[in-house]
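Hi there, hope your week has been kind to you so far. It would help a lot if you went through both lines with me. No rush at all, and the record is pasted right below:

***
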Amino acid sequence: MALSAPATPFTYVTHFLAIAGLVLVLVWTLHFRGGFAWDAENKNLIFNLHPFLMLVGFIVIGGEAIISYKSLPFRKDVNKLIHLVLHAIAIILGIVGIYTAFKYHNESGIANLYSLHSWLGIGIIVLYFIQWLYGFVVFFYPGGSGSLRGGSLPWHVVFGITVFALAVGNASLGLLEKLTFLESSGLAKYGSEAFLVNFTAIVTILFGVFVILSVLSEGPAQGDHSYSAI
């Protein structure tokens, strides 16, 4: 059931929050944390790729993919392809982002998969891929029957929104975890970097809220994918 409100204002706010999240995570990783590197003596530069790729790649691009049917003015088949491709990009960047965390841990002598954030992260990206694969087979190629698509769509939407909400929550949990480690190593609890990380988490949560509001609000009909969320 759609909310009795137009989708357009929600999508505009979503785009604004996406840009704000991009700016905040870049300021944090480039200005405060020293930038990015794939191989470096300073292993923290490797880790910096993780929050950037997970927030911008997995969360922002994934969220934009979810609302593509509401935010893009193209034909249904074009929006469907954009929806699918954006989600594929989100998955790829998410996998690379998770790999950078393992790479940082392995090269720094830190144990892997010991935290709730890491457990949830692995589970979420697996669910995300299953959702994408099911959407590809049923709604894109080879495509299921009309009855299968119709019966699958409500579950497809609910499952997609649930996985996305879990991803947003886990991203915020990861920011909290990293900030806690930094503060235990001497970072000022009321310093500018601590405030920046907290605001990044808040923007991430708000982005997730407005993605969901955009999906659930009224919008232009797009056939059997009007509220799709792979």
The CA atoms of residues 121 and 227 lie 25 Å apart. The radius of gyration is 18 Å. The chain has a mean pLDDT of 93. The first strand starts at residue 3 and ends at 6.
